[in-house]
Amino acid sequence: MNFKDCIDSYPFILMEGALGERLKREFDLDISGTVAMADLIYQQKGRMALKTLWNEYMDIAHRYQLPFLATTPTRRANKERVYMAGYNESIITDNVDFLRTIKETANVNMYIGGLMGCKGDAYTSERALNQEEAIAFHSWQASLFKSVGVDFLYAGIMPVLSEAIGMAVAMSDTDIPYIISFTIQRNGKLIDGHTINDAIYYIDNHVSNKPVCYMTNCVHPDIVYEALSHKFNQTQMVKNRFWGIQANTSRLSYKELDGAKNLRTSSAVDLGKAILRLKSDYHLKIFGGCCGTDSRHMEEIAGISKVV
């Protein structure tokens, strides 16, 4: 089954949990470099740590017989940063190839995503690109993922509509299925003030190949619940197109969390309850973890598939 058919067919899909925070906290790895986590595959300790975390999440998917989505840790591996760090385009291929070695051992339907991200700050929208700049900037990475044959593309934590549209155009041109994931606030809007509904509408009408769906990540499900509850997001378009979350365990806002020195988290049970409410009332189907999550949280999230 290909990625698009999987998304259309399954009512519950498990996405990976946190990588970055766990790599720092549990493995004492430095991910503060120019390309963040993308060059960990060139370190023995980094490869071991990534393999350990992906196998944990993959095993959970297997126990609950769920499809599993994993993405290359390449959100910061854009053309500018890759060359600035002294690497070249092979860093994209090498990350996909490494994740494929994990997939070879998978006992679930696993799909590999090429992770991309905004040029600037995903939490403040500083240095965000306009639409034309974004098309030019993101096409390099998107075309590399096409050449290596990923199952899907994933735009993580996109804070402004202009860059999200440009990213979507670059992804659409590859003919690879893709997902756009927004930076969403309690007020039901992206950082630039566009509503979720309007963001979906504008992107769907600016590309030749529409995203498979839309998501959000790096945010607590209670914040997303509040965002979706605003009347301007209570539309058929949002209901039909907004399908997933990679959840934070903290209910704090992006502004409160950004740069926090200590881990802000909640229990796996509490996160599971928040996910269940979001699933029950807004019928999302893709669930993963972000900051603060570990295998306990992902186990609790996967368990929801048995009660809905």
Automatic annotation (TrEMBL):
InterPro entries: HCY_dom, HCY_dom_sf
Name the UniProt record assigns to this protein: Homocysteine S-methyltransferase family protein
Keywords annotated in UniProt: Metal-binding, Methyltransferase, Transferase, Zinc
Cofactors demanded by this protein: Zn(2+)
Coiled-coil ranges (or none): none
Protein's GO biological process: methylation
UniProt-annotated binding residues for Zn(2+): 218, 290-291
Record domain Hcy-binding: where: 1-305
Keyword Membrane: no
Organism placement in taxonomy: Bacteria, Pseudomonadati, Bacteroidota, Bacteroidia, Bacteroidales
Gene Ontology terms for molecular function: metal ion binding; methyltransferase activity
Matches recorded under PROSITE patterns: HCY
